[in-house]
Amino acid sequence: MAYSDKVIDHYNNPRNIGSFKKEDEDVGTGIVGAPECGDVMKLQIKVEQDTIVDAKFKTFGCGSAIASSSLATEWLKGKTVEEAGEIKNTDIVQELNLPPVKIHCSVLAEDAIKAALNDYKKKADAETRTETTTASAGA
Amino acid sequence: MARSMCWHCQSEMSGEYFCGRCVKVQPLSKELDYFTCMNLPRLLHVDEQALERTFYALSRTFHPDYFATKDESQQRISLGNTALLNAAYRMLKDPIQRAEYLIRLEAGSAKDIRTSPPADLFDEILELQDDLEEFRALSAEDSSARRQTLQEKLEASRRSLEARKADVESRLFDQFDKWDVLHAQTHDDPATQAAKDAVLKTMQALLSNRTYVTNVVNDLVAAVGERTGSGRT
Questions:
Q1: B117 touches chain A (CB under 8 A)
Q2: Alpha helix stretches (DSSP H) within chain B
Q3: pLDDT score at B117
Q4: Distance CA A79, CA A57 (A)
Q5: Domain residue spans in chain B?
Q6: How far apart are CA A46 and CA A120, in angstroms?
Q7: How far is residue B40's CA from residue B92's CA, in Å, rounded to a whole number?
Q8: Average pLDDT, chain B
Q9: Which architecture characterizes domain B1-93 according to CATH?
């Protein structure tokens, strides 16, 4: 079974490899793993006014896992946090033409997106709370 | 494992693998689990000699060579039974595969057991990948200090991860003991069942952990393993 051209392209020229500082307030980080194959995926988003302005990933795994996360970062850029939550693994399967045995790679990418979004939302909520507290304390 | 009726003469089955009346070989049921197939209790410490003995004995019983002159149905059964035996033997012989198989049997699917991912391990793995990538990019002839530093760092990581793998395996084998004790107890007791589920869950987490570690170790060995000469410590 051969990989599709799109998978090979993303594998050979991965987009957005790298990382942001995990601690930054405007960064959401998702680290997930697939216990069946041992792949590990880190996906990060940078958010400005509810819009994802940049995304980066680092994946330790097979070609399909790398391609799935590379594609995911491309798709994430420019989307709002809410829109990003709507990305489904089936979209990735379709775009990359993944064979049935590699579908779990796309699931991993979806999980990573969700984890990154949750991490960002958690930080944002915490910050809003702090601001409110500070504001009321100041008043 | 006796079947109720012979596929050929329809008579009540009296023999175990062959019909008592028409002496035709009988297919092993597809639903047969590997432990039952090998006449073993569902324990994680397997009597390896007993496993091997049963495997050889049954292999002789069903070997396709003995059915070369028989009709096509019997040849097919001999082949199918032999394939099942081979799969069962391979699965049960290896302790890791055996544990994975038992979890599947007992929990339906390993996926039904949710375990929390080892976050600290993930961070370590991803950090290591950076070093590995940089190391791979430098050619073997490169004698720079940077390459030397990286190589030493990767070798140290390999040693520590190999130790971690050994530790995970030893904790896994502790769970083997627990399982075997629990398995000997009554089945209906809800407390026993809860304890068994806990063991299955712990084993699943350890096995996942082991998969992650094994993958990185293999990568590290491929990158720095053979080149060091001294190899394992």
A1: yes
A2: 34-37, 48-62, 72-93, 95-107, 119-137, 145-183, 190-220
A3: 67
A4: 16
A5: 1-93, 114-228
A6: 9
A7: 10
A8: 86
A9: Orthogonal Bundle (1.10)
